[in-house]
Amino acid sequence: MKKPEFLYLLLGASFVSYRFAKRFVKDKLKSDFRYDIILNYSNDDPAMEQFDFYPEDNDKRFFNLNENEVVDILCRKNKVPVWIDISVCKVDRKFTTFNLLCAGRYSDNPDEYYYKKNGSGPFGIKSPNFPPGHNKDEKFKLKNSNQLKF
User: Fold this and answer.
1) Which residue stretches belong to region Disordered (predicted)?
2) What is the residue extent of each domain of the chain?
């Protein structure tokens, strides 16, 4: 996957995740986006030879990135993680920030992308993390949610 195509998918997934999160949160989400990334979030078998692996990425995390920085980190040799779970995690006065949890397997084969049937390539749209004891019929504030801690 070339970087412009990946950027297009990232921005599309971000907008869908943003719209999805509005159904759950009270916060006024901003339309300017930032991203936090956890790499190699999956437990992968490096014997699967059709994928590229980057064991040096274990426990690597990045914060407050713009979309171009995300593309530069995740698009390697025209390969991207086979799944990237995207969800709104926080909002401040300027930005809505998304968590990107990434598989450790990289591929350039669209058939390997977990969410290709959705038209989102490797991106899976997830809800914000709900606070403990959350009533599904009530919206919640992100700052009170049980956010994933990096």
Assistant:
1) 126-150
2) 3-144
DSSP-based three-state secondary structure for 59: coil
127: closest CA among 92, 95, 91, 86?
86
Residue 26 Cα to chain centre, angstroms: 21
Compute the distance between CA of residue 98 and CA of residue 31 in angstroms, rounded to an integer: 12
Helix, strand or coil for residue 25? Answer: strand
Output DSSP code: residue 55.
Answer: G
Instruction: Catalogue the E-assigned strands of the chain.
Output: 33-38, 61-65, 80-81, 84-91, 96-102, 106-107, 123-125
pLDDT digits (tens, 9 = 90+) for 72-124: 999 999 999 999 999 999 999 999 999 999 999 999 999 999 999 989 999 99
**pTM more than 0.85:** yes
CA 81 to chain CA centroid, nearest Å: 11
